[in-house]
Amino acid sequence: MAFINFKSIRKKIVPHNSSEKFNELVQSFANLPSIGKKTALRLAYTLLENHTLALKLAHNIENAVRFIKPCQKCGNLSENELCEICSDENRDKNLLCVVQSAKDILILEESGSFDGLYFIFDEISDELVLKLRNFISENACKELIFALTHTINSDALIFFIEEKLKDFHLHFSKIAQGIPSGVSLENVDFISLHKAMAFRTKIKE
Ligand SMILES: [Zn+2]
After folding, report:
1. What is 19-67's CATH superfamily?
2. Which CATH class is domain 86-202?
3. Which residues contact 9 (CB under 8 A, 6 or more apart)?
4. 135 CA to middle of ligand 1, Å?
5. DSSP secondary structure letter of residue 149
6. CA–CA separation, 203 and 163 (whole Å)
7. Where are the domains of the chain?
8. What is the pLDDT along the chain (205 residues), one digit of tens a residue?
9. How far is the centre of ligand 1, averaged over its atoms, from the C-alpha of 91 (Å)?
């Protein structure tokens, strides 16, 4: 039987580099979602081997962080004060979809299943409630659709928002239950997302 040197295998998977700057770079990648130590190392080596690629990436990150801000109205990411969706007169203003992040807006937009407006509700705060109330008044929205990742907290959030918007007499609905509990929108395929939006269920008043 061939002798396996586990020590050398381990060394290959987790190479050691004594440069503090290198380790910091690796750590920065490893802090990102879905990036493990191995991938972080590979990315760091790739960038150090290709300076043009590395500097372009650094430049793009800096530009994105400096110039992309939350839309003043809905919280979506935008280079302008108002995002493209809020400034688009052709959107159906009767429909307002409440999501938890700008990423969810991107996913719903890519799926093409919704042509109304969005509002990002990512924390329970009076300030955000006020913003949402103003948004609904300004756009005269009629139906509010919750497109939240289904968890125990999402039910509490729906209840909270409904209570705060009682006086608007809106129709409340949430995307259909085809989406499994705890699975975020980014992990749902477009067909399921279409169905979930088309067969959204009315929330009992
Ligand atoms: Zn907006």
Report:
1. RecR Domain 1 (1.10.8.420)
2. alpha beta
3. none
4. 10
5. -
6. 13
7. 19-67, 86-202
8. 455 554 544 444 445 567 999 999 999 999 999 999 999 999 999 999 999 999 999 999 999 999 999 999 999 999 999 999 999 999 999 999 999 999 999 999 998 889 999 999 998 899 999 999 999 999 999 999 999 887 778 888 999 999 999 999 999 998 876 666 667 777 777 767 777 787 787 876 5
9. 12
